[in-house]
Every structure is written in C-alpha cells, then in structure tokens.
Amino acid sequence: MSVSPQSIGAVTPQAFFFEQALPLQSGASIAEYTLMVETYGSLNADKSNAVLICHALNASHHVAGYYADDPKNIGWWDNMVGPGKPVDTNRFFVIGINNLGSCFGSTGPMHNNPNTGKPYGADFPVVTVEDWVNAQARVADQLGIQQFAAVMGGSLGGMQALAWSILYPDRLQHCVVIASTPKLSAQNIAFNDVARQAILTDPDFHGGDFYAHGVVPRNGLRVARMIGHITYLSDDDMAEKFGRDLKSGDYQFGYGVDFEIESYLRYQGDKFSDYFDANTYLLITKALDYFDPARHTNGDLSKALGNTKAQFLLASFTTDWRFSPERSREIVRALITNKRTVSYAEIDAPHGHDAFLLDDARYLNLIAAYFDRIDAQLQGTSV
Q: AB hydrolase-1 domain spans which residues (predicted)?
C-alpha cells in the first residue's frame, strides 16, 4: 500500500488509561487497562461531527495516515478516511480505537496482569463484541462525545457498529455496516474453530503461556491465517490472480510449494505470524462466534433491533461468501420491519470479503454520498 496524495499525513496514537473495572459479559471484569486511540480531523464546537471507525480481526486503531518514524505503516482504511476522501476529515472528526484484547497496544494477553505482574496469557478473559462497544463508549465519554454522527465498520467492525445501535441507541445518528452479518453461520464458526485448533495444538503454544517460554506458536498462526485468508477471497479472484500457475514451471512431486496460490498463502501466513499474537487470535475469533443480537429474543432479529434509533447504511458484495449479501439483507428486512430509515447497496465486485478494503469506485462513491448526507444533516441543509 502506498501513501495516498490525499493522506491525512503523519499521525500519532494516544493511550487512554482506565482504572475503573470494565464488567464483561462473561461475568469477569478487567481493571487498569489501556486502549490505543487515533483521531483525525477536528472536533467541532458542539462535538456533533465525530465518526467512530470500528476495526476488523487483524486491524487496529491505525485507520488512516502513517507514522513519521515508519512511513510504510499506512492505516488499514487509508483509502476511505482522509481529507477529500469518502469519510472526509475536513468535515468529520474520525476516531479509531484498538479493541481490548488486541495486540497493537491496547491491553491484551501479552500485557502484564496487575494482580500477578506476569503476562495475562491464557488468563485474559474472553471478550465479546458488546464488551468492546462498552469500552469504546468510555473513550467517547473521555472525549466529551455524547453522540456520534456515525459509527462505521466492515466485517467484525460492522458487527460492532450494529451493536452500538442496539446498546446505545441515543449515541449515534447513523450506523454504517459493511460486509457484515447479524451472526456467524455454522460454516463460519467451523472455519474459526479449525483455525483456533491449529494454534491450540501447536507445541509452542504452551496452553497460552508461551511468552514465559520465549517462543511463538508460529506454525499454528500460519495455518490459522492461511485458513482465514482463503475465506476472504472469492474463487474468481483467486483464479484471476493465481489460476493453476506453477511456482517453478513444473510439478515437483513432493509436498512443498508447487502452485503460486500455495506460495501466496504461505507468505501471508509467515507475515501474519511475525506480528499477530496467538492469544489475541483466539479471543477475537471467539468474539466473532459469540455475536448474535437475536440470541435473547428467541432468534427474532426484528425484536433485537427494536430499540434502535439510528439511520442505517448497509453494503454487501456479491462474491463475498464469508458474509454473503443475504446476511446484510436479513438486517435490512429487520430494520424495515421496525420502520427504520435504511439504505442498502449490493455491489457486484469480484474480490470476495476483502472488497470492503479495496478501491472500487462504486463502493467508495456510495460511502462518500452517504457521508455527504450526514454532513448536510449536521449543517441543517439538504443534499
């Protein structure tokens, strides 16, 4: 990824420390924790132009811009957020928060438990999407933001945006949910469990306390990432990029790398194992599995969304088989049942689930037009 000519420029993360314990859905709680935060743009006088961006599995608070001491480290949604971009930082104050339990600075399994002085490791409590949203609300409180102009996310980030609309209906005007789902299918849960088993059965995992042994369960992380990456791409996209192309031009008659797609997946796995924490992977995939707003309404999503007040934009991609368009349409139908204002776009794109991160003009124009509308509402004008 290269720096966009409209980049927000060099950015600096901030650490928000919370001494008060955060109650978790599991019944556990966590105190004395830190959340890493980045902000872009300026908060207006009445603090009404704030937009919260919720991140997906392997992303972080670093949404846009780059770091002065590491200019190649560009925000994961830099094509979406910045001056003159769909989420325009000339108009909006954009916030990225690294979720609790992650491995990019927020308190997580690799950090010391204040009660023991040793890394939490396997003792870090299981967290849910709702726990993350409650933690994010505390950041908003510290910033003095009573209501967001919008809460937005793709994939797992979209789940968080949806949870915001349910848990804090008065604290967001718009909810933007992209390439997401109201709950995981059995197939998705199965993929996540296979990935977790790859980590849990790695001899270097040591029951989650591998930090004390000075090792990393790299093989497990590699396989987990390879499994996940397959689900992010469409069959058409893989066929176009790799087909059945051979790495060395002929079969090697062994069990190493023969095909380009094998080489690509191993590269992605190796890269992932260098920067991601194994315990964090377990936590986040379990949070994905557990998300189900309709669990307490006998599976009735309409009832689960009955107290929402926001206006909604949902977008899906035709070749996304991980979170298929039908799952977004399920949310749309539930919102319509509740007579909510909802816009929906289904974009014919070949890139599978990863399409929400890529430069598709129709997609980016859709988001830009929707945020023009949000800005117009803030200004009291029409668009």
A: 49-358
User: Mind telling me the catalytic residues?
Assistant: 155, 320, 353
Q: What is the pLDDT of residues 200-213, one digit of tens each?
A: 999 999 999 999 99
Task: Note whether 328 and 180 are within 8 A (CB).
Answer: yes
Q: Give DSSP secondary structure letters for 351-374.
A: SGGGGGGS--HHHHHHHHHHHHHH
Whether the predicted pLDDT of 7 surpasses 90: no
How many other CB atoms are found less than 10 A from the CB of residue 212? 10
Q: State whether residue 126 is helix, strand or coil.
A: coil
- Model confidence pLDDT, tens digit, residues 335-352: 999 999 999 999 999 999
Please tell me whether 244 is known to bind a ligand: no
How do strand 29-30 and strand 22-23 relate by DSSP bridges? antiparallel
- pLDDT value for 238: 85
Q: In the numeric block, which tokens belong to residue 165? A: 């609309």
| Three-class DSSP category at 99 | coil
- The counts of H helices and E strands in the chain are 10, 14
The pair of structure tokens assigned to 273 is 């194992």
**Locus of tokens 């088989």:** 321
Nearest to 362 by CA among 316, 325, 328, 320: 316
Alpha carbons 286 and 173: distance in angstroms, whole number: 29
Give the C-alpha separation, 315 to 181, whole Å.
11
Selection from 73, 290, 117, 55 nearest residue 189 by Cα: 290
Work out the number of other CB atoms within 10 angstroms of the CB of residue 10: 12
Query: Is the alpha carbon torsion for 202, 206, 212, 213 positive or negative?
Result: negative
User: Does 225 carry a binding-site annotation?
Assistant: yes
Q: Is the pLDDT of residue 199 over 70?
A: yes
Q: In 3-state terms, what secondary structure has residue 324?
A: coil
Per-residue model confidence (pLDDT) at position 2: 52
Which residue has 């390439």 as its token pair? 179
Residue 353 binned pLDDT confidence (cut-offs 50, 70, 90): very high
Question: Rounded to the nearest 5°, which phi and psi values hold at 210?
Answer: -70, -20
